[in-house]
Structures are given as structure tokens and as C-alpha cells.
């Protein structure tokens, strides 16, 4: 009998050249119910691995051999051009603004960008992986700040409160978590969210889908 797909361990490709961190990530993911199908330690191998395995989610570093510049992001962009929406969580010490913007420009969702030195809660990291695998977003606040770069022209119509709500959406927070962070009611967050969707021209669809589109519009400035 074929096991139910809901019980299948999510398949992950990991791209990390630092041996100790790669081993630690593999052990952590395995312990939390993921199946690491390939561990990649260089840029040229990453895109082929993603296309071969079509993982449920990947965890990739930005800077990989041979040049240690932006091989990881460029490989993911190449793979997502072939497989739209292929879920990826960037886990890096650096914010590569140009390619990070390009990664999110297709608005397909399934994108996360976390900074290694700011990941301090394993449960939250694992939850971020599941959220990205489901087509959502998981963005570190510092990454959001750098990606925006002061260019907010498309979002000028939003009120300061609506921009705060949208920024917290980008971090992957639920409406109740946003309400707690802003010391407002869930009803108020719902109202602000609907105003954001309307002002960004996001027509009626599932709220989860509109949240992803709103976040990607926000991060693209």
C-alpha cells in the first residue's frame, strides 16, 4: 500500500560549502522530519541538483565555490526559470540585493531569505522551511530593509500602519502574531490587510495567495 503523501518526509537539497555547517544542517533537518536528498558544496552542481531532484524545498548559501560571490542565488534563479515556484530558502551571511530581487521578481512565492547569524530558534527555522515549501515567504527583517533600499514608490499609497502590517507579513507572521506585535486587535489587522490587498490591486483569491503576492510586491519596491 502506498503511504499517504501527507506523511512523506519533505525532500531537501542543501547547498553549503562549509563542512561543519553542512553536516549540522543535514543532521538538524533529518531530525526534524526532512529527507536531505543531496548536499551540494559548489555552484556549478547546484542548478543540476535542483532540476534533477525537484525538491520540496532547498536551503542554499549565496556564496559558493569556485568564486564565492553569488553562485548560489544565480543557480536557484536558473532552476526556477525552468521550474517556476521551486521553493528555496536562502541561508547566508550576506544580502545580495540584485539577485535577491530577481529571485522574487517572478512572484511565484516559495521564497525565504534568512541570515545565518540571526537564526537562533530551531523551531522557528523549521517552521520557516515548511512555510516556504508551501509557497509562502520567510524574510529576515534586515534583509527586507536592505532590499527596499529606500525605494518605496509603488507603496506610497499605503499608510504607515499598513506598511508595518505588510512588513510583518514579509517575515511570515500570522495575523494574530502581527496583532500582538503591533498591540492591535486581529480585526484591525484584517482591515489593514484588506486595505493593502486593495491598494496593491490584488483581486479576490485565497488570502494566503494574496499575502504572498503582497509581500513580493513590497520587496520589489
Key features?
single chain; 221 residues; alpha/beta; 6-stranded parallel sheet; 6 strands; 50% helix; disordered N terminus
Structure description:
- The protein has 221 residues and is an alpha/beta fold.
- It is 50% helix and 13% strand.
- It has ten helices and six strands.
- The protein has helices at 19-31, 43-53, 71-82, 97-105, 122-133, 141-148, 160-170, 175-182, 186-199, 207-219; strands at 11-15, 35-40, 57-60, 88-92, 111-115, 137-139.
- It has a six-stranded parallel sheet with strand order 2-1-3-4-5-6, sandwiched between helices.
- Helix 3 (71-82) runs parallel beside helix 4 and helix 8 packs across helix 9 (186-199).
- The chain is globular, with a radius of gyration of 17 Å.
Biggest sheet strand order reads 2-1-3-4-5-6
Q: Would you tell me the overall average pLDDT?
A: 85
Distinct helical segment count: 10
Uncertain runs are 1-5
Considering DSSP H and I runs of 4 or more, what fraction of the residues is helical? Answer: 40-55%
Radius of gyration from the alpha-carbon trace, in angstroms: 17 Å
Structural class: alpha/beta
Number of beta-strand segments:
6
The dominant shape is globular
List SSEs in N-to-C order: EHEHEHEHEHEHHHHH
| CA(first)-CA(last) distance | 49 Å
Q: In percent, how much strand structure appears in the residues?
A: 5-15%
- Main sheet attributes: strand count, strand direction, barrel closure: 6 strands, parallel
Give a short synopsis of this structure.
By secondary structure, this protein is α/β, with parallel strands linked by helices.
Amino acid at each position: 500500500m502506498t503511504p499517504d503523501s501527507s506523511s512523506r518526509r519533505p525532500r531537501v537539497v542543501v547547498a553549503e560549502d562549509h563542512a561543519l555547517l553542512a553536516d549540522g544542517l543535514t543532521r538538524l533537518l533529518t531530525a526534524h522530519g526532512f529527507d536531505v536528498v543531496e548536499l551540494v558544496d559548489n555552484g556549478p552542481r547546484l542548478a543540476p541538483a535542483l532540476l534533477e531532484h525537484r525538491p520540496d524545498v532547498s536551503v542554499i548559501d549565496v556564496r559558493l565555490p569556485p568564486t564565492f560571490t553569488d553562485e548560489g542565488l544565480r543557480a536557484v534563479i536558473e532552476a526556477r526559470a525552468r521550474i517556476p515556484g521551486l521553493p528555496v530558502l536562502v541561508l547566508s551571511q550576506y544580502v545580495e540585493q540584485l539577485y535577491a530581487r530577481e529571485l522574487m521578481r517572478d512572484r511565484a512565492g516559495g521564497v525565504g531569505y534568512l541570515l545565518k547569524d540571526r537564526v537562533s530558534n530551531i523551531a522557528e527555522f523549521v517552521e520557516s522551511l515548511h512555510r516556504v515549501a508551501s509557497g509562502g515567504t520567510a524574510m529576515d527583517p534586515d534583509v527586507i530593509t536592505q532590499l527596499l533600499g529606500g525605494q518605496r514608490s509603488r507603496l506610497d499609497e499605503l499608510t504607515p500602519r499598513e506598511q508595518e502590517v505588510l512588513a510583518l507579513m514579509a517575515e511570515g507572521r500570522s495575523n494574530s502574531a502581527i496583532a500582538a506585535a503591533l498591540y492591535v486587535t486581529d480585526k484591525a489587522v484584517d482591515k489593514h490587510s484588506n486595505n493593502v490587498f486593495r491598494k496593491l490591486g490584488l483581486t479576490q483569491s485565497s488570502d494566503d495567495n494574496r499575502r504572498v503576492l503582497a509581500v513580493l510586491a513590497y520587496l520589489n519596491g
